[in-house]
Every structure is written in structure tokens, then in C-alpha cells.
Amino acid sequence: MILHAVSMVAFFVDQVQQAKCIVQCVQAATQDPLLARLLIAALPSVLALGVAWFAFWLNRRWDHNRWLLDQKKAEWRELLDVASDCQIPLHIASTPTDKLAAGEHAIVTDAELKLLKIDQLLDDRIFIDQSILGPLRSKWREAREMASDGSDSSSDEIAGGHTLLLHSIFIKALREAANKDLEIEHG
Question: How far apart are the first and last CA of the chain?
Fold first, then answer.
């Protein structure tokens, strides 16, 4: 399409240049008709190069923006995957400790390790805007502090449910932030 427009401009300039016009006037001493003809002849080439450079620049900018979006999506995906992986172990961990079977203590430890990984992942994000991660970090730390304060209560069942609720609220906030940042509409 761009080459079509450039060829039309070149054809127009060529037709203008070939048109014979007889005008009797006195030529100024500083004007050189050869230089003017060379400039007019070079104009289509200069325009074609300018259009090509502009098209290349737009394409490169679009590719770069697409690459950034892909990197941001990958970071959100990793963060959301780890957060989602925590939900089942958190359900198991929310049961009272005396009711857990011997093998389920490993699941509770696994849940705690995954929760620590979320903290690390929130700090390691490069492409996600820090103005979005800042409130998430503070919400995450609040949830962790409130969950650890709730674990001192007399009932393990209430403390586990409290921890599960706080982390579920954080995971919901995390999903909403990802949707907003990636401009994903859910109707």
C-alpha cells in the first residue's frame, strides 16, 4: 500500500517534470536549472526512503510492545500459578493439626514453602509495573501477619480458616490486578 502511494507520487512528479511550459522570464543569476531538476528527480526516492523508514519504525515499535506484553503475561502467569497451587494445601492446612494424618504434615510444609515463594515472586517481577505490585505486596504482608496473629488463637480450626480466608482474599486481589494490568475484560 505504501509503495503504491509512493509510485503515484513518483508518477505525478515525473508528469510535472515532463510538462513543457513556455514562460518567458528573466532567469536570476543565482538559480541553476540543473540543480533544481536534480532535486525534483531525487524527491521520489527521498520520499520512498522516508516512508520505508517510517514503516520500519512503526513495525519495530509494535513488535517491541508485543514482546513486553508477552513478558508481562509470563510473569503474571508464574505468580498466579504459584498462588493457585497454594489453595489446596491451604485447605488441608486449615484443618486442625490433631486431625491431620502423618503424611499430610508434608502437605502443610509444602503449602508454607509455596507461600514463601509468593513473597519472593512479588519481589522478583521485572516487567509488571511497580505501582501495581506495591499495593499487592502490602496486602500480601498484611495477610501473612494477620494469619500468623490468628494462629495463636485457642482453636486451630478457627486459625486455619482465618489463614485460608486471608490468602483467598489475596489471591482474588492478585487475579483482579492481573486482569486490570493486562486489560482483560470479564463480562
Answer: 38
Measured from the Cβ of residue 171, the count of other Cβ atoms closer than 10 Å reads: 19
| 163 CB burial (10 A radius; 0-12, 13-18, 19+) | buried
Instruction: Give the number of residues written for the chain.
Output: 187
Query: What's the pLDDT tens digit per position in 30-53?
Result: 566 888 888 899 999 999 999 999
Q: Which ranges in the chain are annotated with CATH 1.20.120?
A: 68-181
Nearest to residue 50, comparing CAs of 120, 118, 2?
Answer: 2
- The number of CA neighbours under 13 Å toward the Cβ of 108 is 16
Class of domain 68-181: mainly alpha
Can you spell out the DSSP letters for 35-104? Answer: HHHHHHHHHHHHHHHHHHHHHHHHHHHHHHHHHHHHHHHHHHHHHHHHHHHHHHHHHHHTS-GGGS-GGG
pTM check: above 0.70: no
DSSP, res 29:
T
